[in-house]
Predict the 3D structure of the following.
Amino acid sequence: MKVFFALLLVTLAVAARGVPQSRCSKLLAAGLSSNYNESIAHAIHSMTVQGLQLFNPRANDQNTIPTVNHNLHDKNGVKVLPYAPNDALPSDYFDITMNMIDKILSMIGKSDDGLGAHWSSTERIVHKFHMRDLWLRLQKEVRELSPKPLASVCKCVLDVKSNGIFRAVEWIAAHYESGTPITLLDRPIPKLVDSKTWEFWKSDLLHYYTPEALHDAAVYLHCATKDF
Ligand SMILES: *[C@@H]1O[C@H](CO)[C@@H](O)[C@H](O)[C@H]1NC(C)=O
């Protein structure tokens, strides 16, 4: 069985060069969960250079991670950027927490924070800190990823236009125009106003912390950040 598996891996590695579409589907089906498009799109939709630096300190804006366009009034109507942009924090306060709050609140009412008109201040703060929390959890997941994904797997998972990840980021961008999509489950999300609605938000925000979802996103982020 072990020998068979080793042979299989060698075969797959050799096949890495061209990696046709059907082979990619098989490779990704074998290594990722069945809705990896959504778990990965969720993890990266608001990715920034600063977020990528959690995975590789040399990361910069020459990357190919698709993200929701923060500029909702882009004159060319671009909804999804083909890269994660630079997003430096102000530094007037001492700690990152207060500098993050400063950044979020200083953009309220301007429509260039990538979320659109439907997010309250509280929901914005929760969204930003939730994504940072997930990225920090994923930092550990990427570090401990074993075995590391093969070159062939990386090639397929990074081919976002073919594998459905780009389309899922587009789904998120489109849903920012009508609500607060904190998951890709496509169900109504209550306004976050009290402890009752927080219960809903809390469990929805934990949706992509399952071992499968973390593994999907870790494979993508390992592949996307290893070569800076
Ligand atoms: C993700 O992929 C599944 C299976 O192919 C598909 O049913 C679903 O619509 C996709 N999700 C998005 C948001 O594109």
